[in-house]
Amino acid sequence: MSILVNSNSRILVQGITGGEGTFHATQMLEYGTNVVAGVTPGKGGQSWNDSVPIFNRIDVAVKQTQANVSVIFVPAAFAADAIMESAAGGIELIVCITEGIPVRDMISAYEFVQKKGARLIGPNCPGIITPGECKVGIMPGFIHTPKGPVGVISRSGTLTYEAVAQLSALGIGQSTCIGIGGDPIIGTKFIDAIKLFNEDDATEAVVMIGEIGGTAEEEAAAYIKENVKKPVVGFIAGQTAPPGRRMGHAGAIISGGKGTASEKMASMRSAGIHVCESPAVIGETVQSVLS
Amino acid sequence: MKIHEYQAKEILRKYNVPVPQGRVAFSADEVPSIAEFLGSEVLVVKAQIHAGGRGKGGGVKVAQNPQEAERLASEIIGMNLVTHQTGPEGRVVKKVLIEEGCNIDKEFYAGIVLDRATSQNVFMVSTEGGMEIETVAEETPEKIVKEIIDPAIGFQGFQARKLAFSLGLSGTQFKNAVKFFGALYKAYEATDSALMEINPLVVTKEGDVIALDAKMSFDSNALYRHSDIVKMRDFDEEDPLEVEAGKYNLNYIKLDGEVGCMVNGAGLAMGTMDIIKYSGSSPANFLDVGGGANVETIKNGFKIILSDPNVKAILINIFGGIVRCDRVANGIIEARKSVDINVPVVIRLAGTNAVEAAKILDESGMDFAVADTLKEAAEKIVSAIKND
């Protein structure tokens, strides 16, 4: 088992004819992901790499290909619109890779996605992968190990790869890994992903990689304390970050004294989460909680 | 992106948010003509720097007449202003805002910001004007009244009335406050503001509601649609190395430690800073070189890191996912040839083709320490500094 995506997921790539879209659609196909459609307005009717049909509109693509997951590689200025078109077109799971979407646009897009009952992952994220089955995003597939007991949730890209590689090096596989994104507004928060992993039979432990800014880790910790029996291993990036500075990710900022790593680590510890002080020991900490 | 108070007030004026009449002065000589233009005997002289707490630091003074204002301006311009937000090194004041005085009856707080928990904007007011809102939130949270703005309908009149009533206003003051809040929200939304704070928001004895101070910052992802606001950027208020790094499209933040770091990805960059600290040293910077990590970005990264005289060693930590490590290794070697590096360098490349990369680095004959794991990299960098 896994969460959100599996070998039956039917993927639609928004912006498939662009540089990023083409590169990553190719990588996804090579991983064995079921890419069924591409959407680039104005290029409908053509075929991408002689293998994937291109459509002008999401709704038409959904109707003709039964796509149920979309992945977005369109530029930031048009990405919120792309999210909303997916939600309006009947896509169930929208994965937005694009970085740099204005907050004002995301407020509307987030609202609309909720109203349509769709789920959004990201934006500004590496995507989601169920190892061995389905890769929807830009993460390197080969570092993952299929059919494992660990679910991974993270606000970061490369730091997630680091954690996953540590797990794989110890022979510990992953059920599903989700990069939820580094922006202040994201569709799937820690708490949402935790709930899904908690209900997933295949997932025995969860790795939660947070960072400074906001209070999503604290909210997840409170939920875990009350509801989650599975062991959770956590790390918070940015213990050495100064206040008031945006550390790369738009959402990684300590503002008004809130969102510090130490606050987050304290509330995670009090919820019984195994908090790693160093990012180098995530894998071995998981190994010890599993045994 | 941050702007100065006088710039924020220019923007607010455009959106019909009442602000005191005022002009910015870069030298005290300009004060007499500004005073004449304002036609006010009492004048306020306010240091313009991108940091709060200016009043307590001695950067805001009231003058009883234009002559005193000129004298105060000459004292404040050029002073090194230290506030709780500037750090102990302070900030040199390059300009002052000269404003008419006003007849204050009450002082309040008004602020608008994104509420990350709901993914909606929140409009906050408090009767505790002039106080840091964080302190109010900590000590007397019941004194902050919040209205969440539903994106489907926007900021509504009933919400503005609720905020104005919560401040205990009535009559003309109430009517003006309702108008003020509506205009303020429009300004916030139309400019893609990331934070708007009016502290204090004052009500005058005449019944006017005025933004006595104004702090605005903007969503940098939305600046492409606000060329007028982009022009307001003041490079004097930023770290020169960070400005330089920005020219190379590098995401660099200067810190005060001794280990320079070059990493791909913001989360891993923070994690690398953390492990340096955890291993007993301290990071000199945050630097995310992004997905590319090619010769050019690595070269520029070296240059920026080495411009910081505190740097005693450099740690390169790249997780090659899409980008192949052997390419990164060759990039590092190329970059190394053209940059004069006089501190130890520890390199850790993980992911795609990491083994080939280590071999390339080993065979380069260059003076690199190579590490396989994050832990080993941190240990090597700390011992490199100790042995230096």
Show the helix and strand layout.
The complex is a heterodimer of chains A (291) and B (388).
Chain A: E1 11-14, H1 19-31, E2 35-39, E3 47-48, E4 52-55, H2 58-65, E5 69-72, H3 76-88, E6 93-96, H4 103-116, E7 119-121, E8 127-130, E9 134-137, E10 150-154, H5 158-169, E11 174-179, H6 190-199, E12 205-211, H7 216-227, E13 232-237, H8 261-270, E14 274-275, H9 282-290
Parallel strand pairs in A: 1-2, 1-5, 2-4, 5-6, 6-7, 10-11, 10-12, 12-13, 13-14
Antiparallel strand pairs in A: 3-4, 8-9, 8-11
Helix pairs in contact in A: 3-4, 5-9, 6-7, 7-8
Chain B: H1 5-14, E1 22-25, H2 31-38, E2 43-47, E3 60-63, H3 66-76, E4 80-81, E5 91-92, E6 96-100, E7 104-115, E8 120-126, H4 133-139, E9 144-149, H5 157-166, H6 171-190, E10 193-204, E11 209-211, E12 215-218, H7 227-230, H8 240-247, E13 251-254, E14 259-263, H9 266-278, E15 285-288, H10 295-306, E16 313-320, H11 325-338, E17 345-351, H12 354-363, E18 368-371, H13 374-387
Parallel strand pairs in B: 14-16, 16-17, 17-18
Antiparallel strand pairs in B: 1-6, 2-3, 2-6, 4-5, 7-8, 7-10, 8-9, 10-11, 10-12, 13-15
Describe this protein's structure.
The complex is a heterodimer of chains A (291) and B (388). Chain A is α/β, with parallel strands linked by helices and 291 residues long. In chain A, 35% of the residues lie in helices and 21% in strands. Chain A is globular and about 55 Å long. By secondary structure, chain B is of the alpha+beta class. Chain B has 3 domains: 155 residues, ATP-grasp fold, B domain (D-amino Acid Aminotransferase, Chain A, domain 1, 2-Layer Sandwich); 81 residues, 2-Layer Sandwich (Dna Ligase, domain 1); 149 residues, Rossmann fold. Chain B contains 13 helices and 18 strands. In chain B, the strands form 5 sheets. In chain B, strands 7, 8, 9, 10, 11 and 12 form a 6-stranded antiparallel beta sheet that branches. In chain B, α12 links the parallel β17 and β18. In chain B, α2 crosses α3, α5 crosses α6 and α11 packs parallel to α12. The longest helix of chain B is centred in the middle third of the chain and has 20 residues. Chain B is elongated and about 80 Å long. The mean pLDDT of chain B is 93. Chains A and B meet through α4 and α5 of A and α4, α9 and α13 of B.
